[in-house]
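Whiteboard transcription, Tuesday session. T.W. wrote the structure tokens on the left side:
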């Protein structure tokens, strides 16, 4: 079974940094992409960042929501068994439950949804 588990959330002051991790397992091939989503209280879930599959000719491109560009960086090990979201210059509006998710095949843009989801990790940014 596909399993995804986000970790690394916590409490941080505005302007601080935090790194989230996503452990991915159970994929039957390397042709999958990983995304980070978040949902703040009373708000819709939104895509934050994703990293495209590097299987075959896929280039492993990364994509970011406009609200986090220049502040967040997504990365992974070569097998995507671990995917990270480095969050810098955090703002109170970044407070949310963060989820990692996965889908088969490459991505060309930040998606609205993905097929596989893990349980989230809470990030709280104080002002």
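and on the right, the sequence the group agreed on:
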């Amino acid at each position: 079974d596909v399993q995804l588990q986000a970790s690394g959330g916590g409490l941080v002051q505005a302007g601080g940094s935090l790194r989230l991790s996503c452990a991915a397992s159970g994929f039957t091939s390397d042709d999958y992409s990983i995304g980070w989503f978040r949902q703040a209280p009373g708000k819709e879930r939104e895509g934050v960042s994703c990293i495209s599959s590097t299987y075959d000719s896929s280039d492993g491109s990364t994509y970011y929501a406009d609200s986090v560009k220049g502040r967040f960086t997504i990365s992974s090990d070569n097998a995507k068994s671990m995917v990270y979201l480095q969050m810098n210059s955090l703002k109170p509006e970044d407070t949310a439950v963060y989820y990692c998710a996965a889908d088969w095949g490459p991505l060309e843009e930040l998606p609205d949804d993905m097929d596989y989801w893990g349980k989230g990790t809470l990030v709280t940014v104080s002002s």
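Someone added at the bottom: The first strand starts at residue 3 and ends at 7.
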